[in-house]
Design brief:
single chain, alpha/beta, TIM Barrel, 33% helix, 275 residues
Length: 275
């Protein structure tokens, strides 16, 4: 089927390590940062005990997927190599899977070696902000695992990922990017693909609100789509607030995204959103 064919269904399921995840009802992805420098919760969960406690909290509060990340990708954050990501992750993934076997774990990384490590530890999805552009071996490693892959719209290099780009039409630009990348992923044998339009990465405030307003046109309903707007600066900075002070505004935007077809909502506090 061509990426731009006429099927507009938003009802999907993905194969997560042999477990079928039905996305006909939207799911919540809870964020578990194993970083000391995250903009919102840096250092809170970067040891095994606190990470397990947070995983439990996320699951109790409605998260189906736990998104584990060891590298902050906020502007001006410290750049980590793959071995440091692996060191930070340690046994957290395997401990979560042992303690909460019903959980699904996505691994937020753009490194091939980290994907392979995570696969051995028991991850169920790969969440890559780079679209395979920061590590040339990443996509082949994802194909080897057979896991679902979250494809995010982003600028082509790590150094440019937060550079504001002037788009003639942000929706058309995102869809062109996805069409090209999805074809590449399918050539490599990656079957289960989730689209992420990349809120917070190299886009103006105006473009990001347009992405929300026209969300139903992103991907043309061909693939499941994830929205990650939680504590993003395009929401709180124009209001002259802090990341933890825009829960009401974020909730309103989450409801709008769900009405427009979001299949997965990635967020820090799943208890704020009942679906």
């Amino acid at each position: 089927m061509d990426f731009f064919s006429t099927n507009h269904s938003r009802f999907f399921s993905i194969n997560c390590n042999g477990r079928l995840l039905d996305l006909s009802k939207p799911k919540l992805m809870g964020i578990l940062n194993l970083t000391p420098d995250s903009f919102s919760d840096g250092g809170k969960f970067n040891n095994e005990k606190s990470a397990l406690q947070q995983a439990e909290n996320l699951l109790k509060n409605g998260a189906t997927i736990i998104d584990v990340g060891a590298q902050s990708t906020r502007p001006n954050s410290e750049f980590l190599k793959a071995d440091e990501e692996i060191r930070r992750i340690g046994n957290v993934i395997s401990l979560i899977k042992k303690e909460f076997p019903e959980s699904l774990i996505s691994l937020d990384t753009f490194y091939s070696d980290v994907v392979q490590f995570g696969f051995d530890e028991g991850i169920d999805l790969v969440n890559d902000i780079s679209a395979g552009q920061f590590d040339p071996e990443l996509l082949d490693s994802v194909a080897m695992t057979g896991l679902p892959y979250i494809l995010m719209h982003v600028n082509p290099t790590y150094g440019l990922m937060h550079e504001k780009i002037k788009f003639d039409d942000i929706i058309i630009s995102i869809n062109r990017f996805f069409a090209e990348k999805v074809n590449l992923l399918r050539q490599k044998g990656i079957k289960d693909i989730i689209l992420d339009p990349g809120f917070g990465f190299g886009k103006t405030v105006e473009d990001q609100y347009k992405m929300i307003d026209d969300f139903e046109y992103i991907g043309f309903g061909q693939l499941p789509i994830l929205a990650g707007i939680s504590k993003k600066s395009f929401i709180y900075k124009p209001l002259r607030k802090q990341p933890n002070e825009v829960e009401r505004e974020t909730l309103d935007l989450h409801h709008k995204l769900l009405k427009k077809g979001a299949n997965i909502i990635r967020l820090h506090n799943p208890e704020t959103l009942v679906i």
